[in-house]
């Protein structure tokens, strides 16, 4: 399927308070966000017309902006309403929603005290991050040579554009080597994430996921942890070493885009898609659509 360029599509985008035609939602090339990476964003999904955890995503957008010293000139309620408006104006019910806030063109240089923070919200149809076949057999991950920065090296709890530089490099390298995504290690050398999703491993029925002390505490991660507790699984928030991961019975990742996706291979080690991953994946798919999910629990 040919990719339709993102600057040449029909529809409308919410831009600094107004809905404007998609192709007119432009910024100037001299823009602080572009030159210095002063931009934060969100990735959200709407299921059957309902934006999942909309308020939580908006709160994180504001937190990310604050961590970068940016002040969003709208209230959280206004951004929540804008997301609903843009979804409706584009006639979408199952969609991906992308709010972004960035420093503008008012000042150019490292110091950006005089810049204004601009906000745009776009949405588009995006059925599944990975194909259904891949999701069924589990995706492959290649360990990246890049390590995620330490908490005193970068604002690692922000969903900030600049932090994705190594993720893009890592994903490109993984794809070049025939893998679907990259496995990211933290500054200590422990596996913590894929390039856009959090990591879980299961051994002898116990689920383990690393503490988010230097990476994004994903909203899906928090949701799945809650689901795991409700479904009666034991879950520990603890360091996972590379050895732990390679010895796991099941591995899966979570994210708004990835949802709950099983891992079928890490480097040379293969995994099967197991019952815990399936139960949590089914429960998550029911929950986001407002359907009952407790029956999904493994016996
Ligand atoms: C690097 C990274 N980690 C984790 C996540 C998962 O976050 P969430 O579940 O809030 O989408 C994402 C996706 O936003 C991400 O880009």
The chain-level mean pLDDT equals: 96
CATH superfamily of the largest domain: D-amino Acid Aminotransferase, subunit A, domain 2
> How much helix is in the residues?
25-40%
Flag low-confidence runs: none
Number of E strands:
16
Q: What ions, cofactors and ligands are bound? A: pyridoxal-5'-phosphate
The portion of residues forming beta strands comes to: 25-35%
Large-scale geometry: globular
CATH class of the largest domain: Alpha Beta
Number of domains: 2
Indicate the CATH architecture of the largest domain.
Alpha-Beta Barrel
Question: What would the keywords be for this entry?
Answer:
binds pyridoxal-5'-phosphate, 8 helices, D-amino Acid Aminotransferase, Chain A, domain 1, seven-stranded antiparallel beta sheet, alpha+beta, 2 domains, globular, D-amino Acid Aminotransferase, Chain A, domain 2, nine-stranded mixed beta sheet, 299 residues
Brief summary:
27% of the residues lie in helices and 27% in strands.
What does this structure look like?
This protein is α+β, with helices and mostly antiparallel strands and 299 residues long. The protein folds into two domains: 12-124, 2-Layer Sandwich (D-amino Acid Aminotransferase, Chain A, domain 1); 132-296, D-amino Acid Aminotransferase, subunit A, domain 2 (D-amino Acid Aminotransferase, Chain A, domain 2), CATH 3.20.10. The protein is built from eight helices and 16 strands. The strands form two sheets. Strands 8, 9, 10, 11, 12, 13, 14, 15 and 16 form a nine-stranded mixed beta sheet that branches. Strands 1, 2, 3, 4, 5, 6 and 7 form a seven-stranded antiparallel beta sheet that branches. α2 crosses α3. The longest helix has 14 residues, at 54-67. It is globular and about 55 Å long. Pyridoxal-5'-phosphate (PLP) is lined by residues 43, 193, 196-198, 216, 218-221, 254-256. Residues 43, 193, 196-198, 216, 218-221, 254-256 line the site of pyridoxal-5'-phosphate (PLP).
């Amino acid at each position: 399927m040919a990719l339709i360029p993102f600057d040449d599509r029909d529809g409308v985008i919410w831009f600094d308070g107004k809905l404007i035609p998609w192709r007119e939602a432009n910024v100037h090339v001299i823009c602080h966000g572009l030159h210095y990476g002063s931009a934060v964003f969100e990735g959200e999904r709407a299921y059957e017309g309902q934006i999942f955890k909309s308020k939580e995503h908006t709160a994180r957008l504001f937190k990310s902006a604050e961590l970068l010293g940016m002040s969003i000139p709208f209230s959280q309620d206004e951004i929540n309403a804008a997301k609903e408006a843009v979804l409706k104006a584009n006639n979408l019910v199952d969609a991906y929603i992308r709010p972004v806030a960035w420093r503008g063109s008012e000042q150019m240089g490292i110091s950006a005290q005089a810049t204004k923070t601009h906000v745009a919200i776009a949405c588009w149809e995006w059925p599944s991050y990975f194909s259904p076949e891949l999701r069924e057999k589990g995706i492959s991950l290649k360990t990246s040579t890049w390590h995620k920065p330490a908490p005193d090296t970068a604002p690692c709890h922000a969903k900030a554009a600049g932090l994705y530089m190594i993720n893009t490099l890592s994903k490109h390298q993984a794809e070049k080597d025939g893998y679907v995504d990259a496995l990211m290690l933290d500054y200590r050398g422990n596996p913590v994430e894929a390039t856009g999703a959090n990591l879980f491993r299961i051994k002898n029925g116990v689920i383990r996921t690393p503490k988010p002390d230097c990476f994004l505490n994903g909203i899906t991660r928090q949701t799945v942890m809650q689901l795991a507790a409700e479904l009666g699984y034991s879950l520990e928030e603890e360091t996972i070493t590379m050895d732990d991961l390679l010895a796991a019975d099941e591995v899966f990742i979570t994210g708004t885009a990835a949802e709950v996706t099983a891992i079928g291979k890490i480097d040379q080690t293969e995994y099967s898609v197991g019952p815990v991953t399936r139960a949590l994946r089914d429960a998550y798919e029911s929950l986001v659509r407002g359907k009952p999910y407790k029956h999904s629990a493994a016996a």
